[in-house]
Design brief:
This protein is α/β, with parallel strands linked by helices. The protein has 18 helices and 19 strands. α13 crosses α14. The structure holds NADP nicotinamide-adenine-dinucleotide phosphate.
Length: about 500
């Protein structure tokens, strides 16, 4: 293992010309890369010595010279093996070239540099190699200075495997699980004690699937703050690529000076996929994974995994856990901050306690997951709930479970409720001109739209025009994240910062 402080943040350069690559090199160093990988195979022609001079003389940071063979996912044709090794040999002569990457199957006598400069690599773009242990043993037994193994990840458990490899190797090692599912192996390379990790200069310049950008590594994933004791949190879901949770939680950790990092964990649908990853976490307490946000489609899987005994009554009744907390003894607990976030957003705006919801008449629009959490919580606090839904049968099933009344969505215009809560997707971006009701009944005093993109939905605009109190989905969203933050850190959530970061992200979208 490498001392985390020495783990290299490597920027691969993929430009087609020497001039562009040199310019990108300076840019990458300025953007925080401490090592550059020049992908010589991606240049549009083999550089001669003069061109190598332009590219490699006086580099601002250490350089890794790579000319990846096509058999391992690069652009250098197999028939040009002699030219490829000759190019690497010529590059290795430059002082700035600290390392030369050579594939494991290149015979020792053909290595283009001295062993102390060699990164011995193996890539599998399809799966974890079946002969993984053999590959690692071969690398460890070689004279090369550094091991590098990269394989396509089926799930984030393959990133945990990468951590195992780094930990078990005696030599400095790069182990990367490629693709979106394996991104945590890249983000946590420093915590795992890897020789380095790769981060692209900008989106679109990746040299392998799943590479974050330098900016994301440094500013979103807090690269410089990570060390062995950093606690790890993440959002489990499918998809997770556009989740705002990494931005909210990492910003909040930063604000309060908490040594944590929050990562995306893409897990395909299915209880077995969820359980496989969680088992990997159970088996590796040293990695310090301390909490998870859980989103679609895994909230019920999360409840089953933590087991109902380790949850409060409402998550059990709702049948969904959106927050898992792992304590210092490795015990798992499940919570649901979705319902709490929504109920508190409503009560805060109405300036009442949760208990004051008793006997209030509520019209709940929708009968999906969000509606289910609210129906359970509102009934728990004694509200009189009518569920209105397009598919009446779904409303009836939900209503029967929580002692509510069910009606068709079209009847909501004539509701006698004082509070209306929209839990349908109607009005959400891009359908911003839609509203779940064409008119608001005169009985309504409070209108809450759980949709938060756009911030002011058509429904909320209609409610404001009628002088109703309005509650936005943004408050619910920020509250549920704040609830998670407090469960994990036991520090009051920096609500203003969390809210600001969501607003900025929404405005950018
Ligand atoms: P879900 O389980 O898929 O349920 C969707 C609901 O919307 C169903 O009741 C569905 O009716 C109804 N619906 C969808 N399109 C419709 C249409 N064109 N016309 C009439 N009804 C329609 O989704 P969910 O997880 O409950 O989420 C629902 C919404 O809640 C989301 O879109 C999101 O905006 C919001 N939400 C917000 C937060 C937050 O933090 N602010 C958190 C979670 C959810 P049918 O049963 O007839 O299909």
């Amino acid at each position: 293992m490498t001392d985390p402080a020495a783990t290299r943040l490597i920027c691969p350069l993929t430009a087609p010309t020497v001039e562009q690559m040199r310019s990108d090199m300076l840019c990458a160093a300025e953007s925080g890369a401490d090592t550059i990988e020049v992908r010589l195979d991606l240049l549009d022609s083999i550089p001669d010595d003069a061109q190598l001079h332009v590219l490699l003389t006086d580099s601002p940071v250490d350089v890794i010279a790579t000319a990846r063979a096509s058999r391992e996912g690069g652009k250098f044709p197999q028939c040009d093996e002699a030219a490829r090794l000759d190019l690497l040999k010529r590059a290795a002569k430059f002082d700035s070239v600290a390392f030369v990457d050579v594939e494991l199957d290149v015979p020792r006598e053909d290595w283009p540099a001295a062993p102390e400069k060699i990164i011995l690599s193996h890539h599998n773009f399809v799966r974890v190699p079946e002969n993984l242990h053999e590959v690692i043993a071969q690398m460890e037994a070689s004279e090369a200075a550094v091991n590098k193994i990269a394989f396509a990840a089926a799930g984030p458990e393959d990133a945990l495997l990468a951590a195992d490899i780094i930990c078990s190797c005696k030599k400095p090692t790069l182990a990367l699980a490629m693709g979106e599912a394996g991104v945590v192996s890249r983000i946590l390379a420093r915590k795992f004690g890897a020789f380095g990790t790769f981060a692209s200069l900008q989106s679109g310049c990746e040299s392998a699937p799943g590479q974050p950008t330098l900016d994301e590594m440094r500013n979103l994933y807090r690269w410089n703050s990570q060390d062995e004791s950093t606690q790890v949190f993440g959002v489990i879901g499918c998809p997770v690529g556009h989740s705002m949770s990494p931005m909210i939680h990492n910003t909040a950790f930063d604000k309060v000076g908490f040594n944590g990092v929050y990562v995306p964990l893409l897990i395909q649908p299915g209880h077995e996929n969820f359980a496989r990853f969680m088992q990997g976490i159970v088996e590796r307490p040293h990695l310090n994974f301390r909490g998870f946000s859980v989103t679609i489609p895994h909230k019920h899987n999360a409840l089953e995994f933590v087991t109902p005994e380790n949850c409060d009554e409402l998550p059990r009744t709702i049948g969904a856990v959106n927050t898992i907390t792992v304590d210092s003894a490795g015990k798992f607990r499940g919570d649901n901050t979705d319902y709490a976030g929504a109920i508190d957003a409503l009560c805060d705006k109405m300036k009442i306690a949760r208990e004051d919801l008793a006997s209030r008449r509520v019209a709940l629009l929708g009968a999906g997951g969000a509606s289910r959490a609210l129906a359970a919580a509102l009934s728990f606090y004694g509200a009189e709930v009518t569920i209105y839904n397009r598919t009446l049968l779904r409303a009836e099933t939900l209503a029967a479970e929580f002692g509510c009344v069910a009606k068709p969505l079209n009847d909501a215009v004539a509701t006698d409720a004082e509070i209306l809560i929209n839990c349908t997707a109607i009005g959400m971006h891009p359908n911003v001109d839609d509203a779940p009701v064409c008119e608001l009944s005169d009985s309504l005093e409070v209108v809450f739209d759980t949709v938060y993109n756009p911030l002011e939905t058509k429904l909320l605009a209609m409610a404001a025009a009628k002088k109703c109190l309005t509650v936005s989905g943004l408050d619910m969203f920020v509250n549920q994240a704040a609830g998670q933050f407090e469960l994990w850190t036991e520090i009051p959530a920096p609500l203003d910062v969390m809210r600001k970061v969501v607003l900025e992200q929404l405005q950018r979208k």
